[in-house]
Amino acid sequence: VGGRGGTDIISTVEFNHTGELLATGDKGGRVVIFQREPESKNTPHSQGEYDVYSTFQSHEPEFDYLKSLEIEEKINKIKWLPQQNAAHSLLSTNDKTIKLWKITERDKRPEGYNLKDEEGKLKDLSTVTSLQVPVLKPMDLMVEVSPRRVFANGHTYHINSISVNSDCETYMSADDLRINLWHLAITDRSFNIVDIKPANMEDLTEVITASEFHPHHCNLFVYSSSKGSLRLCDMRAAALCDKHSKLFEEPEDPSNRSFFSEIISSVSDVKFSHSGRYMLTRDYLTVKVWDLNMEARPIETYQVHDYLRSKLCSLYENDCIFDKFECAWNGSDSVIMTGAYNNFFRMFDRNTKRDVTLEASRESSKPRAVLKPRRVCAGGKRRRDDISVDSLDFTKKILHTAWHPAENIIAIAATNNLYIFQDKVSSEMH
Amino acid sequence: MEWASEPGEEGPKPGLNPPLRAAREGAPGRMEFKLEAHRIVSISLGKIYNSRVQRGGIKLHKNLLVSLVLRSARQVYLSDPCPGLYLAGPSGTPMALPQLPGEPAAGPAAGWGEPAPPAVPAAWQETQPHPERSAVPDAQRAVDAEPAAPGIDAGDAVLGGQAAAGPAWRLMEGPREAAAGGPGNPAGASEVFPEVARAASHHCGRPPGGEDQPGALGATPRGDCCCAKEEAPAPPPIGPRKRGAAGAGGVGGPAGCPAPSSTPLKKPRRDLEEPSSGAAAEEEEEMETGNVANLISIFGSSFSGLLRKSPGGGREEADGEENGPEAAEPGQICCDKPVLRDMNPWSTAIVAF
C-alpha cells in the first residue's frame, strides 16, 4: 500500500502484554493493530498468524501558529496499557501530544425493539400487540476505536518516549530536556519530574534520548542521554528527580576517539529486562547490557556492525549516523535483538554468546520460509553469500523491532513493511 | 533457532542506494586530516542550515550532535598554527602548509583535539587583555578582521574570527535577522544567535590530552569559552584569527601575510544596539532552537556566496546540494565584494565560525 511521500513508513512497533495484539504507528499518523488468530484445529497451518484488527488515524499534522512550527503527525511511540477489562487501551504520541485510545469490540447487537423496526423506523403503535424484550444477536465483528484522553501542551521539545508505570495509573513522557509524569485520567496537568534544561541554553551539552519505568518498582525509572549515560531515578527521593540515584556510564576508549565519538555514544534506546535486573541500551555501533547493581560499566557489550566504524564520516554525511535504532529483549531475557542496515537485524544470545544476522526481505520471506543467516564481509576472506560493506543499502534500515513477551515471535519494521517471524522449531522460550 | 516468516506483509518500495565513500576514511597525513576537518565543518553547517527548513521544527538532539562535531572539526582545523591554510596571499591562492618541527605525528588520534606543539605556542601569545564574556566587547574583538566597508554584514560575520563572533553576529545582523529569521524564531531573535556559536565553542572546553599548555589556547580559539575562566591556568585568548596568525610569522608564516600592525582590518564596533527581544523570549518558552536557524540563515547565505565566487579553491563537495536552498536566501551581499573574492572562502568561513 503506497503512501504519498512515505507516510506509510513504520515508525514504531509494540506488542501488548499478552502478545495477542501488535500495534504499529507510521509517519502519516496512522495506527494499525494486528491480532493473532487463535490456533484452531481446522487450519493447523495458519496457527498464530497476525491479521489486521483495526486501523485508525491517531494524529494529524498540526501547525503551531505562535511559533510558526509545523508539528509532525508521525507516531513516535505506542505503549499498551495493561488490560483491565474487555477493552484494550494504548497510548500513542507524536512530537507534542499523547493520546489514550480505547479499542472495543462489538460482536452483538440488540434486536427486537418494541417501538422501532429493524431499520430503526418508528413502528405504527397500533400494530404493536405485545411487548418483547430485545435480545442480543451476534453480528460481524466491529472494532471501534475512540480517543479517550488527549494529553496536550505538556512538552516544549520533541517527545521521544512514553512509558506506562507498573501502578497502571500513571505514565511518563520524555522530551529532549524534560520528563513529565501524568495520571492516565487527568489531562489538564502533569508533573515535571526531570528537567535538564540549563539556565543558559548555551551551556547545553546533553539531551534526554529515551526513558522507561522499571517493570516492577513503580518508583524507579531510567533515562538515557546523548552522552551515553543512564540515570536511574527514584521518585520517592524527591519531587524533582534531577539528582539521579545511580549513574551508569562507561568511560570512553581513547583509542576510538574521532570527530564522531560523541554522536556514536548517544544512546538511542533503553529497555529494562523483563526481570527488572538489567537494562539494555543501544548506541550507534553496539548494544550493551547493564546490571542495575553496577554503574561503572556494562556487563556485556555486543558489536552490531563494527565494520561501520571506519565509515563514520560518510555516514555522517548521509545522515545515517543519526539513525536511532531500538533494541529488544526476548521474554526470558536470554536473547537481545536490534536492527541494522540493508534490512538486516541481529540477535545475540547472552548465554551461548552466539549471534546471528538475519535479513527481512521479500525474497527471503516466503511464507514458512526459513531465514538464512547472513554475513557482512568487511575485507579478508569472503564467502559466497557474503555482503560486502560497500554494497550495503543504507536506505534500508531496521530501526524498530519488537519481541513477543512470551513466545519467539518477532515483529520487524523495514521501512514501510512489517515482517513477523516465528520460531517454529520451538515456540517456547529457551 | 530457525526463524520462519509469516504472511501479512505490505508492498515494498524500491530504495535508493547512496554511495558510501570509503576512500577518505582513516585518512593519514596531517594535511589530509585537516582537509577532512574542513569538509566536516562545511557538511555540518549545511546540516544546521537544512534543519531549519525541515518539517516538524528544528530537532534539538540532532543539532546538538552536529554542533559537537562542528566544534571538534573546527578545533582540529584551527589547531595548526600555520596561517597559510587560511590566509591567502595576494594571488588569492592558499599557501602551502609548512611542516613545523616537532609537530605531532599525523593521524587523527594524535592531532585531534590536542594543543599545538610547544614550538608554536609562543608565537600565539597575545597581549590582548581578555575581555569579559559579554556581548559588546566580543563584538569589538570579533569584528575587526574585515577590511571592507561596514555594510558587509555577512562578510563581517564570516571573518569575525572566533566563536565569540556569536554576539558579534547578533549585533551586526540586527536588522537582517528579522528578515532571515524564518520559521522557528519569531521572538527570540536576539539571544538565540550566539547560543549555537557559543555552544559549539563551549563544549570544547575540555579536549583530551590537556589544554593548559601555555599558548596552546592560542592555537585553538577556546579562550572565549566561558569554561576557560573556570580553569585556573587559562591562557589569554587570542583575538581575531588574522592577528594571531600574523603573529606566528616567526615560525614560518608565508610571505605576504600582513603584519599585525599593518592590517587594516580592525574596525571595532561599539554600542551596537541589542534587539530587546530577550524579554519576548521569556514570555513564552520557545524551543530555543531558533538560534540555529538564525546562525545558518545568516551564515549559510554568506557561506554559499563565498563558495560560488571561489576561484576553484574550494572543493567539489562544496558544490553539493546544500548550496541549492541557500541560493535563494535573501541577503547575499557578500559575494559581490571584490575583496572577498581574493580570500580563500573556506578558510575565512571556518575561521569565522
UniProtKB/TrEMBL annotation, chain A:
<protein>
    <recommendedName>
        <fullName>Serine/threonine-protein phosphatase 2A 55 kDa regulatory subunit B</fullName>
    </recommendedName>
</protein>
<dbReference type="InterPro" id="IPR018067">
    <property type="entry name" value="PP2A_PR55_CS"/>
</dbReference>
<dbReference type="InterPro" id="IPR001680">
    <property type="entry name" value="WD40_rpt"/>
</dbReference>
<dbReference type="InterPro" id="IPR015943">
    <property type="entry name" value="WD40/YVTN_repeat-like_dom_sf"/>
</dbReference>
<dbReference type="InterPro" id="IPR000009">
    <property type="entry name" value="PP2A_PR55"/>
</dbReference>
<dbReference type="GO" id="GO:0019888">
    <property type="term" value="F:protein phosphatase regulator activity"/>
</dbReference>
<dbReference type="InterPro" id="IPR036322">
    <property type="entry name" value="WD40_repeat_dom_sf"/>
</dbReference>
<dbReference type="GO" id="GO:0000159">
    <property type="term" value="C:protein phosphatase type 2A complex"/>
</dbReference>
<keyword id="KW-0677">Repeat</keyword>
<keyword id="KW-0853">WD repeat</keyword>
<comment type="similarity">
    <text>Belongs to the phosphatase 2A regulatory subunit B family.</text>
</comment>
Automatic annotation (TrEMBL), chain B:
<dbReference type="GO" id="GO:0005730">
    <property type="term" value="C:nucleolus"/>
</dbReference>
<feature type="compositionally biased region" description="Gly residues">
    <location>
        <begin position="246"/>
        <end position="255"/>
    </location>
</feature>
<dbReference type="GO" id="GO:0045944">
    <property type="term" value="P:positive regulation of transcription by RNA polymerase II"/>
</dbReference>
<dbReference type="GO" id="GO:0005654">
    <property type="term" value="C:nucleoplasm"/>
</dbReference>
<dbReference type="GO" id="GO:0042127">
    <property type="term" value="P:regulation of cell population proliferation"/>
</dbReference>
<dbReference type="InterPro" id="IPR008653">
    <property type="entry name" value="IER"/>
</dbReference>
<feature type="region of interest" description="Disordered">
    <location>
        <begin position="232"/>
        <end position="289"/>
    </location>
</feature>
<feature type="region of interest" description="Disordered">
    <location>
        <begin position="305"/>
        <end position="336"/>
    </location>
</feature>
<feature type="compositionally biased region" description="Low complexity">
    <location>
        <begin position="102"/>
        <end position="114"/>
    </location>
</feature>
<feature type="region of interest" description="Disordered">
    <location>
        <begin position="1"/>
        <end position="24"/>
    </location>
</feature>
<dbReference type="GO" id="GO:0042802">
    <property type="term" value="F:identical protein binding"/>
</dbReference>
<feature type="region of interest" description="Disordered">
    <location>
        <begin position="102"/>
        <end position="144"/>
    </location>
</feature>
<dbReference type="GO" id="GO:1900036">
    <property type="term" value="P:positive regulation of cellular response to heat"/>
</dbReference>
<dbReference type="GO" id="GO:0005737">
    <property type="term" value="C:cytoplasm"/>
</dbReference>
<protein>
    <submittedName>
        <fullName>Immediate early response 5</fullName>
    </submittedName>
</protein>
<comment type="similarity">
    <text>Belongs to the IER family.</text>
</comment>
<dbReference type="GO" id="GO:0034605">
    <property type="term" value="P:cellular response to heat"/>
</dbReference>
<dbReference type="Pfam" id="PF05760">
    <property type="entry name" value="IER"/>
</dbReference>
<dbReference type="GO" id="GO:0000159">
    <property type="term" value="C:protein phosphatase type 2A complex"/>
</dbReference>
